[in-house]
UniProtKB/TrEMBL annotation:
Residues 45-137 form the Methyltransferase domain. Keywords: Methyltransferase, Transferase. One of its GO terms (molecular function) is methyltransferase activity. It comes from the Bacteria. Pfam families: Methyltransf_25. It comes from Streptomyces canarius. Signal peptide: none annotated. InterPro entries: Methyltransf_25, SAM-dependent_MTases_sf. This is Methyltransferase.
């Protein structure tokens, strides 16, 4: 599964779910609040900006936002909400593509760094963030914690969400640190719709080492955008890395 084929026109058309899921106010609001605070009046760069779920409300808060995005259909969907002058987007991959200018904050939300399927690409992504930041600038990553403790011997899949009309499960390749997320959506008919996406899962400690290789220091890590304590049972984290200030 290539990323270009996954994030196609059909996916882009179905991606936005206003008011629910990842677009729910209680999910989106704290993320926008925190990123606006971290930008501190400076410019923000979003890697894998997608359809603008975070960028559009962040720009609405007065933050100057630029994006990098691999999928043209996702950018086209974004353009139904904001024009190029409001939110400029450079088409390309987040590991190597350069956006013009210098930024106060670069951010990656909703597990997107795991869409890079090799450790080398993920390390490159940190270096790419660093080259866009001024001294003292921050790189923010939202990422889930791999749930390998749920895998008994010989089992390769976990169900991570089950609710009316939806089942989400992950299949793991622990040898190569890969996981495929399967999203099944269905109704009262006999038909179901499947969306799959491959990922390379990353432990927080490995992420911290990637950050060090690119010249970052870990500034904060919380369990969510609202600042809840990150603990052993946390299923995700928001990690803020900082380029040390000059001097």
């Amino acid at each position: 599964m290539q990323q270009e084929s996954i994030w196609d026109a059909d996916t882009a058309q179905r991606y936005d779910t206003p008011g629910t899921g990842m677009f729910a106010p209680e999910v989106l609001g704290p993320a926008v609040d925190r990123l606006a605070q971290l930008a501190g009046g400076g410019k923000a760069l979003e890697f894998a900006i997608g359809t603008g779920r975070v960028a559009v409300p962040l720009a609405g808060r007065g933050v100057s936002v630029t994006g990098i995005e691999l999928s043209l259909p996702m950018v086209e969907q974004l353009r139904t909400k904001a024009d190029e002058a409001t939110i400029p987007v450079i088409v390309g991959d987040m590991a190597t593509t350069i956006a013009p200018g210098e930024y106060a904050v670069v951010y990656l939300v909703y597990n997107t760094i795991s869409n890079l399927l090799t450790q080398d690409e993920q390390v490159q992504c940190f270096h790419n963030a660093a080259r866009h930041l001024a001294p003292g600038g921050r790189f923010v990553i939202e990422l889930w914690v791999p749930e390998l403790r749920k895998l008994p011997p010989g089992q390769t899949a976990t169900v991570w969400q089950c609710e009316p009309g939806y089942i989400g499960l992950d299949t793991y390749d622990v040898l190569h640190q890969h996981v495929v997320s399967h999203h099944f959506r269905f109704d009262e008919t006999q038909q179901a719709r499947l969306f799959r996406s491959p990922h390379r899962y990353v432990w927080p400690a490995e992420l911290d080492l990637m950050a060090q290789l690119a010249g970052f220091e870990l500034e904060t890590r919380h369990a969510d955008w609202s600042g809840a304590e990150f603990a052993a049972e946390s299923r995700s984290h928001v990690s803020v890395y900082r380029i040390p200030p000059a001097g």
